[in-house]
Each structure stands twice: as structure tokens, then as C-alpha cells.
Design a protein that fits this description.
This protein is α/β, with parallel strands linked by helices. It has seven helices and eleven strands. The strands form two sheets. A seven-stranded mixed sheet has the order 3-2-1-4-5-11-10, sandwiched between helices. A four-stranded antiparallel sheet has the order 6-7-8-9. 35% of the residues are buried.
């Protein structure tokens, strides 16, 4: 089953409740901490349909969006608007094979995209590539779903629907592999025929502990590694859905 092939066209409608402006507000709070950024070039790693990329571009950042799904990037490119002075550059790449033309002043990787890298070896490679392309003093900010949250999804069934899309998905968590698999059945209305097309997708997220992610960052060369609560500027608390990591490349 493909990931994001059929979902891409309905992703924004199904995730209408994600407040990207609020996410951008939180990201900018981190940008201002610790003396600010070296410059204004920001990488949105695993950018998906580019909603956050465009939101930050509207705030004056020179954006690069990277995602491994060409279908999601096609949706991102279609969001071009006159309100952005410098349109983002979009690149189709996996995290572990990130390859930029120069350095960036910050890298953000949001909405538990890190969890989607289910092989620790590949996540290590991804962190290595981020460190390589960060300018000295540059910020790396990302979030990860907590193991407790992913384990708690086991056996749950969810339904999302819009006027032209119907999505039923169930979650199965394996304590042995620490991977949560999402099995999705998608139905999309073909306006030309009035018929519903059916598709299937499989998505996986791996549960990483704070200690594991911290160690991977250290191996990549990051040193001042801080953790925060779910879009908070305080330490994480038990029961929170996400933990945020913020670390800078040494000058």
C-alpha cells in the first residue's frame, strides 16, 4: 500500500483542525531565543503539502520545503500566492538523503515527522544531514510523539470525512517493534462520474524515547539539546502528546 499517493489530494481537508499559524508562532518563539538566527533561510523538513512552509514564507523567511512524496509536494506547489515575496523552493528528497545547495539558518521538522522514520539508522543519517547543512549557530527544532501516546492508539478506529472524501483508519501498535501502523481505507468522490474511488494506504510511526533521540542528536554533533512540552516553553510533563527538541549547531 502506498503512503500519501491517494491521501495527498485530501490531506489538507482532513487535517483542517491543524492551526499552522499557531505552530508558526511557536516556532518563531524558538527562533528568537538564544540570540536569534544567523539569517532568514529556513528548511521545512518533511514539509508535506507545505502549509507550514507557506505560513513561514508569508512571515518573511526564505523557505526550502523538502518531502519524499511527490504527490504531497505537488499540493504544496499549488499554494503559490502573491502575498509571498519570495516563494519557497520545494525538493523531493528523503530525510536521510537530504542534499541542499548551501547552508540554512534553521531546520524545522514538525507534526511527528521524525516518528515516520522507523529505522533508527536512517534517523541517525537524517540528523547527520541536518547538522551538515545547518549554518554555525543554526537551530534545529522538531517534535516527536511520545511512546505513551503511540502505544495508547493501539486498537483504536478513527473516521474522518469531508464532502468528497471518506477515510476510515485503524491503529495497531507493536510493543516488540515499537511501531504503530495506521491502516487507512480512503474513498474519494470522482466529480466527473459521480462514483466513489477506493484506495488503501499504510503509514507507520516508531516510538522513540527522549533519551534515544537525545543520543542520536549527540552522535550527529549537536550539544546543547533542550526538550520542551507540547508547544510550550517549559520542560515536558507526563501525559503530553508531543515532546519538542531544540538544539543549535555550535559556532
Amino acid at each position: 500500500m502506498n503512503s500519501y499517493g491517494m491521501l495527498a489530494g485530501s490531506y489538507d481537508q482532513l487535517t483542517y483542525d491543524v492551526n499552522y499559524a499557531a505552530w508558526a508562532d511557536y516556532i518563531e518563539k524558538h527562533f528568537r531565543r538564544g540570540g536569534g538566527l544567523p539569517g532568514k533561510t529556513v528548511l521545512d523538513l518533511a514539509c508535506g503539502t507545505g502549509s507550514l512552509t507557506w505560513e513561514l514564507a508569508r512571515r518573511g523567511y526564505e523557505m526550502i520545503g523538502v518531502d519524499r512524496s511527490p504527490d504531497m509536494l505537488a499540493q504544496a506547489a499549488d499554494k503559490a500566492g502573491p502575498e509571498v515575496e519570495i516563494s519557497p523552493i520545494f525538493l523531493c528528497q528523503s530525510m536521510e538523503r537530504l542534499d541542499l545547495y548551501g547552508t540554512v539558518d534553521a531546520c524545522v521538522c514538525c507534526l511527528d515527522s521524525v516518528n515516520y522514520v522507523t529505522a533508527p539508522r536512517k534517523l541517525q543519517q537524517a540528523f547527520d544531514r541536518v547538522h551538515l547543512f545547518l549554518a554555525p549557530g543554526g537551530l534545529f527544532l522538531f517534535d516527536a510523539r511520545t511512546p505513551e501516546r503511540l502505544a495508547g492508539l493501539d486498537g483504536q478506529v478513527f473516521l474522518d470525512e469531508t464532502d468528497d472524501t471518506y477515510c476510515v483508519w485503524r491503529a495497531e501498535y507493536s510493543a516488540r517493534t515499537r511501531v504503530c501502523a495506521y491502516y487507512m481505507d480512503l474513498f474519494r468522490l470522482d466529480e466527473a462520474t459521480g462514483q466513489w474511488d477506493r484506495g488503501e494506504e499504510l503509514h507507520r510511526e516508531r516510538a522513540y524515547t527522549v533519551e534515544e533521540l537525545t543520543e542520536l542528536l549527540r552522535k550527529s554533533g549537536f550539544r546543547d539539546i533542550q526538550t520542551f512540552g507540547d508547544r510550550k516553553l517549559r520542560p515536558p510533563r507526563p501525559g503530553e502528546e508531543r515532546v519538542f527538541f531544540a538544539t543549535r549547531k555550535e559556532t
